[in-house]
Amino acid sequence: MAHVLKHLRGKIVAGLVTVAPILATIWILKVLFNFFDSFAAPILDPLLPFHIPGLGVIIGLLFMYLLGIFVTNFLGRKLVIIGESLLRRIPLANTIYGTAKQITQSITGASNRAFQKAVLISYPRVGIWTIAFVTGESKDANGTAYYHLFVPTTPNPTSGVMVMIPRGDAIDSKLTVEEGLKMIISGGMLAPKENEITSLPK
User: Fold this and answer.
1) What is the 3-state secondary structure (H, E, C) of 60-120?
2) Using 50, 70 and 90 to split pLDDT, how confident is the model at 201?
3) Which label site among 46, 81, 86, 112 has the fewest CB atoms less than 10 Å from its CB?
4) Residue that terminates a domain, selected from 108, 125, 148
5) How does pLDDT run across 146-158, given as a tens digit for each residue?
6) Do the domain assignments include residue 90?
7) Half-sphere exposure of 116 (CA within 13 A, CB side)
């Protein structure tokens, strides 16, 4: 009997793991569709003879495009910097905004440009390994090459520590920057199923 229950539980969990991401994706897309559609409906419906489903999505994308043009010019960037500085002074809003921004940047790849690659380092002590991102390189007076690394925290990788270590003490993780960020944000739950991480030294 216990074997049968174990078998049923294993198969149900496997089915749930398969269908949950699909349902979550459909739900998020539906929420976004309804949001943009309801956002534009009060403006467009009085001007049109009938409601056109999906027109709000087109308007929303156009709005995002225009907003993108605005925030990438000089005035827009200044306003964004001022707005973010105000949010950083509000404890709870700072955490929520920082996490949401980092997740969005990791999904869209915007944050990938800040990091050269993902490596593994022994931190905070020998025997414990963590993901770090290379932000630069330098050499000391003896010609020893060093990595400049950002070691983010989980689940909010907008905070962390900066360390400098000899290049030989870092191991190539074989992960892309995006994969490394997703692992950190998810606490390891979004690790690649078949990763190519090299064997760690004892």
Assistant:
1) HHHHHHHHHHHHCCHHHHHHHHHHHHHHCCCHHHHHHHHHHHHHHHHHHCCHHHHCCCEEE
2) low
3) 46
4) 108
5) 999 999 888 777 6
6) yes
7) 10
3-state SS, 139-179, equals: ECCCCCEEEEEEEECCCCCCCEEEEEEEHHHCEECCCCHHH
Strands lying side by side in the sheet with 118-122: 160-166, 145-152, 129-139, 118-122, 171-172
In a domain, 58, yes or no: yes
Helical (H) or strand (E) element with 18? helix 2-44
pLDDT of residue 132: 92
Asked if 143 and 95 sit in the same domain, the reply is no
Whether 102 and 19 share a structural domain: yes
Indicate whether 83 belongs to any domain: yes
DSSP lists the bridge partners of residue 166 as: 146
Query: In this structure, are 89 and 173 located in the same domain?
Result: no
pLDDT of residue 135: 87
Q: Are residues 41 and 62 in the same domain?
A: yes
Closest by CA to 181, choosing from 122, 105, 121, 116, is: 105
Q: Residue 36 CB: number of other CB atoms within 10 A?
A: 20
Give me the amino acid identity at 30. K
